[in-house]
Amino acid sequence: MSILPRRFKRIKNVLNCRIENLTVLVENVNKPHNLSAILRTCDAAGVFEANFISETNTVKTFNSTAQGSQKWVKLNNFESTLSAVSELKNKNFKLYGTTLNSKSIDYRNFDYSENTCFVLGAEKWGLSNELLSMVDHSIFIPMRGMVQSLNVSVAASILLFEAIRQREIKGILPLKGEGLNQNEYQKTLFEWSYPELASMYKKSGRKYPTLNDEGEFDQTTNN
User: Fold this and answer.
1) pLDDT tens string 83-118
2) What is the pairing mode between strands 137-140 and 105-106?
3) Where residue 140 falls among pLDDT bands split at 50, 70, 90?
4) Average confidence (pLDDT) over 195-199
5) How confident is the model at residue 17 (pLDDT cuts 50, 70, 90)?
6) First to last CA, the chain
7) How many Å apart are CA 179 and CA 109, to the nearest integer?
8) Is a pLDDT exceeding 50 seen at residue 66?
9) Which CATH superfamily does the domain covering 21-170 fall into?
10) Would the pLDDT of 63 be above 70?
11) What distances in angstroms separate CA 62 from CA 34, 37, 58, 120, 179, one per listed residue?
């Protein structure tokens, strides 16, 4: 059964605005509520994928806070700090670690218009020394209260939407799918439109069918 045209249009409109070169790396944030809130923020900001470090290889985010956003943001789960940082740096991401130390700089003093990854840790412990030694810059969000820390999901929101603000000013926010490479775009379009079929194609090792402008299987290319 084909996807409804209005549903397909909605999926394309969202995917057209997804951003591949803006992401987060979250360390030791194990509360499902916080992880879900971060994921929901990523979806709202148009972030294509998020990264988590979890030794157990299980990221628990699927509670009511996520509001289904786990379906629309790809999760990359790493079992070690080194593997996470290596992967991101191989993709030319610049890592901005949130922490309060003598080297930290106000987050508003940086340009986030290119490959940007915000690195966040648990509110109680912050980032590990290992991860802090690997970030490109240490940043902080200025505060005026007695408590000098924000909920990690709130911090993620502030940082991601600052990056979005900067990119909007520069006129580089994607609107027509240019935020993703086209192979990833077409692959994701099929998976979002036909998740059950996508699972079947993956298991069989077959290539996804091409979709036409109405979300139907394109007979001219799939024969």
Assistant:
1) 999 999 999 999 999 998 888 999 999 999 999 999
2) parallel
3) very high
4) 93
5) very high
6) 18
7) 24
8) no
9) SPOUT methyltransferase, trefoil knot domain (3.40.1280.10)
10) no
11) 11, 10, 11, 20, 26
Residue 22: the pLDDT is 98
Q: Which band of pLDDT confidence, cut at 50, 70 and 90, is reported for residue 65?
A: very low
Residue in this structure with the two tokens 């605005």, named with its chain if needed: 17
Domain with CATH 3.40.1280.10 in the chain: 21-170
DSSP letter string over the chain? Answer: -PPPHHHHHHHHHHHHT-BSSEEEEEES---HHHHHHHHHHHHHHTB-EEEEE-TTS-----SGGGTTGGGTSEEEEESSHHHHHHHHHHTTPEEEEE--STT-EEGGGS--SSSEEEEEEBTTTBS-HHHHTT-SEEEE----SS-----HHHHHHHHHHHHHHHHHHHT---SSSTTS-HHHHHHHHHHHH-HHHHHHHHHHTPPPPPB-TTSSB-HHHH-
Determine contact, residues 175/17, Cβ cutoff 8 Å. Answer: yes
